[in-house]
């Protein structure tokens, strides 16, 4: 009897291939897990932000390398790959959180700096305003204006006008030039011009006289390039005496024009 041996070699090859494949299964899984772990280990972000999970992956790989049970090797290799994936995800999450925290800190720094700049600007503005106010007060004092509840008031006596007249005396104009100079140097300054009289005539006459005198002073200022929008005029007649009208000196003191300097940013009153 002749035996055909042509089919024996393919059967042996198949058996060898199956055996190799069976051995390659867990070995390949372990190799993939080891490669994944090695790549993750050299990633500085993963190494620094997910060290605990990477340690667990390392432990899984060591156990897989030490045992011979193929199913357990595959299981441990799978676990190691999953742990490496978790380490990557955890590192990305922590990196995102750190970036967000840095962004919030930068925003806080920006807000803090903005508030500091705003406070410094406000302090500088307050200092400048204080210096400007002090300089203005000194100039008003030089004009002989007095500080009152209504602000600074410059009193111009009856030397501006003849008795019962509303036309300025020639010499009175010289007294007003100092006021013109001040107003030109402070273009934002507004004033109220108030006329007052004694009580030697009727109330209605005195009221009209005081109004004409206030307007006469305003007209002089406008003629000397002071804008009319900066000036208000008001006549009070004998309503607000400064002294008794029973004496010559008292009546002379009551015949006056008062220049009221408005506070900064406020209309004259």
Protein model, in words:
By secondary structure, the chain is an alpha+beta fold. Helix content is 64%, strand content 10%. It contains 7 helices and 5 strands. The chain has a 5-stranded mixed sheet. β1 (146-148) and β2 form a beta hairpin. α1 packs antiparallel against α3 (51-66), α1 runs parallel beside α4 (70-142) and α3 packs antiparallel against α4. The model is unreliable at 1-23 (pLDDT under 50).
Number of beta-strand segments? 5
Q: Tell me the span between the first and last alpha carbons.
A: 141 Å
Q: What is the count of DSSP helices, taking H or I runs of 4+ residues?
A: 7
Outline the biggest β-sheet.
5 strands, mixed
